[in-house]
Amino acid sequence: MLSVDALTKSFGSKRAVDTVGFTVDKPMMIGVIGRSGAGKSTLLRMINRLSDATSGSIRFEGEEITTLKGAKRRAWQSRCAMIFQQFNLVPRMDVVSNVLHGTLNRRSTLATMFNLYPQADIHKSIDILDRLGIAEQAAKRAEALSGGQQQRVAIARALMQDPQMILADEPIASLDPMNAQIVMEALRRIYEEDGRMVITNLHTLDTARRYCDRVIGMRDGRIVFDGTPEQLTTGVARDIYGAGADFSEAATSTEIETLNTQTAQRPVPA
Amino acid sequence: MTDAASPHPAGVIEIQSHYMAQVQRRRLYSGLTLLIFVILMVAGFNIADARNAGGFWDGVLNIGDYPAEVISEAWEKRADLPGLIARFFPALIETINIAAVSTIIGASAGLILSLLSTRGLARWPVLIPLFRRTMDIMRAVPEIVIALVLIFVLGGGPVPAMIAIAIHSAGALGKMFSEVAENADLKSVEGLSSTGATWLQKMWLSVLPQVAPNYLSYTLLRFEINIRASAILGFVGAGGLGYELRNAMAWGPGRFDEAAAIFILLFGTIVLFDQISSRYRNRLTEGQNG
């Protein structure tokens, strides 16, 4: 389905993503982990074609993605939705309009400039919002919503694109644990119920373990781990994060459950 | 789509119809706005056309006649052009001087007025409407009207032009400045308040560092505008390049070479300052984001 081969992105002399390769043959939920600056975001942005690859190839169902241009590139982007850490909604527009932005690639530029969307699309977007549990917010401005709600609006926009693949770039990094859980569960449901592939960047191990079928670990632009969550031992995790023996998984956790065990074990500060 | 057999819960249907009603209303309003706009445009054009001495459609065909005359005469006497340009150069300096002094005075006054009229920053919040209306008036009166009054009082020359442009600049920049200041982050102002800072200290140390790049950028833009304004004020006797241009044009055929020389100077100067200031403005605004 998706195959990435020797993908490289250089900024000057620095290689943000360095000959990365992996293949995915059926829709699944993939977590990409690694510390900040490991090249996770750059990888996702290249798949969506928000940024261009320096070399290498990305193939989706046999089609080469890295060389698409103009309208074809935009058509690809509509097939592969993206979710951002900071939600990237239009703050002053209402929630439904933000969700309808998912149809921009299919509609004429003139009609969308005057906010003229078909009634069926408007109803569909409210259905999607209902599925994510925020239909009551439909008429509010996006900026009036909490972070967790805004991220769900962003997911609704992604679903409105009816994409084959959803890329999520640190979707929960700016959310509190409760909202993080809601958002991750929503992403998991999208994979399980709709059968869409989900690739999500995470910087916490336990989230990747809990929600993903496959985990890819990146360090300094290279893939250093690719396997199932069960294969992800503490030793491997130390390798991915370049941490020493004092590394504890709970230290990077955002899950509510781990908080209790963590406080019990935390060493007394000097 | 949402019939009785719909699988959706009642709540969603209600939200959908509610939102659709809102969308319908919004579309109606924007349709009406568009209609009014079109009617006004067509009506306005017709009135203007009817009042025009010769009629728009007859006149529009002759639009190239005057420039063609100027260019052909200037081309015949092209050997004189460098000498003429050199002769009018001091007048150009005078024009730029008027623009520069009035921009500096206008920007300083605009800075003070803007801080006094911004909600959340004003020294005397009660007086905000007063300062705002003052700026409105300064902005509303055209430079040329102020200049004419001042020339009547003070006599011709660059000083009335300078004062006229400074007053207008202060009003226009004050408005733009206060819009920038409204978006300034008030957290650092609160931080300084907590240390017991005076109003002036808070403005100078917390607001200005935030707004300075934008203020400078607007001031540079205003400088460009003021060069044009000061050239035009020469027409009413305020000195500088405009005065020479009026003389050359009023003489009609025979001195079109002088007019051409002045046009070249004016055009060249405006392009030059436009380029310089747009480069600096880009750098200022980018530096702020990066």
Overall radius of gyration of chain B:
27 Å
Helix content of chain A: 25-40%
Shape of chain B: extended
Number of H- or I-type helical stretches of chain A:
10
State the low-pLDDT regions of chain B, or none.
1-6
Q: What order do the strands of the largest sheet of chain A run in, or round the barrel if closed? A: 6-7-8-3-9-10
In total, the number of domains of chain B comes to 2
The fraction of residues assigned to DSSP E strands of chain B is: under 5%
Counting DSSP E segments of at least 2 residues, the number of strands of chain A comes to 10
Q: Pairing-aware structural class of the strands and helices of chain A?
A: alpha/beta
Strand content of chain A: 15-25%
The CATH class of the largest domain in chain B turns out to be Mainly Alpha
* Straight-line N-to-C gap of chain B: 49 Å
Q: Radius of gyration of chain A in whole Å, from Cα?
A: 19 Å
Name the pair of protein chains with the most residues at their interface, and give those residue counts. A-B, 15 and 16 residues
Average of pLDDT of chain B: 85
Q: How many strands of chain B? A: 0
What is the CATH architecture assignment of the largest domain in chain B?
Orthogonal Bundle
What is the fold-level CATH name, i.e. the topology of chain A? Rossmann fold
The geometry of chain A reads as: globular
How would you summarize this macromolecular structure in one to three sentences?
Chain A has 270 residues and is of the alpha/beta class. Chain A has helices at 40-48, 70-79, 95-100, 109-113, 119-131, 147-160, 177-194, 205-211, 234-241, 256-265; strands at 2-11, 14-24, 29-33, 55-60, 63-64, 80-83, 165-168, 197-201, 214-219, 222-227.
